[in-house]
Amino acid sequence: MLRIASIEQPTELASEVAEVYRSAFSVFRDAPTDREVAVFAGETLGRHASREAFRFVAALEGERLIGFIYGYHGRPGEWWEEWIRERLPGELFERWFVNQFDVTEFCVRAERHGEGIGSRLYDRLMAGLAGEPYDRAVLTTRRLNNPARGFYLRRGWEVVWEALDARYSLLGLPLPAAAIQLP
Q1: Are 58 and 13 in contact (CB under 8 A)?
Q2: 3-state SS, one letter per residue, for 17-45
């Protein structure tokens, strides 16, 4: 039976996180290399887990990790914020990158796509933002041939900047209107 749970120490699941990350992105022609997957699970995840207001939500069948979503309160000076700052007009950056929650990674094993697992993960993460002081949420997603983009747009996200680079767009969601109340 699938259960959705918040995980306090996702680095303890690093090898399973790596498996899910590899699987989720295997559907793309430019899937991450083994080295990139290892760096993500062994370094990036731990760095992100130490950030302010970090939240990690997992889909588990028994003890097997099926998918995950996580984010945190983004801050100036962090790599991603600075990468975005270089690509956006200043007034647009200031509008979206003040008091925002960064949805950082969202992965479901490729063979489990289409089962509603991603919706359950997303709903749990967003429900956890209810009552929090964030004004907006932001994320990047692939621009082309990407079902995830439609997933976000159907949930009220808007395209803030279409072409951050050849692969990614910036999406934003005003909060708290988007916060989901779970039964």
Answers
A1: yes
A2: HHHHHHHHHCCCCCCCCHHHHHHHHHHHH
Task: Give the homologous superfamily in CATH for domain 2-174.
Answer: Gcn5-related N-acetyltransferase (GNAT) (3.40.630.30)
pLDDT bin (cut points 50, 70, 90) of residue 144 is: confident
Compute CA 82 distance to the chain's CA centroid, rounded to the nearest angstrom. Answer: 17
Smallest CA-to-CA distance from 154 within 171, 175, 131, 169 is with: 171
Under 8 Å between Cβ of 101 and 137: yes
Global pTM reads 0.92
What is the spatial distance between Cα 78 and Cα 76, in angstroms, rounded to a whole number?
A: 6
Q: DSSP string covering 133-154, please?
A: --SEEEEEEESSS-HHHHHHHH
What is the pLDDT, as a whole number, of residue 90? 94
3-state secondary structure of 171: strand
The tokens 């990139």 sit on which residue?
36
Q: Minimal CA–CA distance to 76: which of 57, 91, 98?
A: 98
d(CA 159, CA 56): 24
Q: Which pair of tokens denotes residue 60?
A: 């588990």
CA torsion angle 14 15 16 19 (round to 10): 120
Q: Residue ranges of the domains in the chain? A: 2-174
Contact yes or no for 94/160 (Cβ under 8 A): no
Question: Do the Cβ atoms of 70 and 56 come closer than 8 Å?
Answer: yes
